[in-house]
């Protein structure tokens, strides 16, 4: 037959309440407190006695600090809080990746290379032995300088060469070597150009001749690199 638990719940079980789990036998009934109205501090069991929890009515011993059923803190009257959700993934790795991306963006912040075909340069390079038609109608394109070192050349999947400024298809300049030249950003923010031992050399506007392979040559805002059969690369601060 139905019985009443110490918290006042009607239970079909005579040993433990079907609603709150409190023991029923030999425990006097006691009113329950709601979660939204927690008990005042110090409402735990009396010294040397076994008393019902003031929140759910479950039995509580003199040495208990928390109710084993509802979890209330007998000293403070506070209910247990929900656990903090675990952080998934790799937060340290994500932070490292974000920091790396910030450094990469800052490395070339505000600088671009403008790539275009230069007819005057082409005509000075023209050779009757190797006829190459000038790519008329090809517009200029901008390549942001996002890292401290920018490779200029022509892509080769088989050799694993992937230039930052790719002068292969669709803007093929056959006079450009696979690893033609490098633009390198110095610690003070300035840039230098370094020829990588290219077949046809690298020239900088205003220079007397091709750069010596491996040597750093300062390039400033507005300076131009002439490479291949017709390519002009202008370094600009955006």
Task: Describe the 3D structure.
The chain has 238 residues and is α+β, with helices and mostly antiparallel strands. It has helices at residues 91-107, 119-125, and strands at residues 3-4, 10-11, 51-52, 59-60, 111-117, 141-144, 149-153, 165-166, 179-185, 191-195, 202-204, 216-219, 224-227, 231-237. The strands form 4 sheets. Strands 6-5-14-13-11 form a 5-stranded antiparallel β-sheet. Strands 8-7-9-10-12 form a 5-stranded mixed β-sheet, with no helix packed on it. The chain is rod-shaped, with a radius of gyration of 39 Å. The relative contact order is 0.11.
- Give, in spatial order, the strands making up the sheet with the most strands: 6-5-14-13-11
Structural class: alpha+beta
Domains (count): 2
Low-pLDDT residue intervals, each spanning 5 or more residues: 26-48, 99-108
CATH class membership of the largest domain: Mainly Beta
Q: Percent of residues in helical segments? A: 10-25%
The rounded distance between the terminal residues' Cα atoms is 86 Å
Radius of gyration: 39 Å
The third-level CATH topology of the largest domain is Tumour Suppressor Smad4
Order of helices and strands: EEEEHEHEEEEEEEEE
Overall pLDDT score: 77
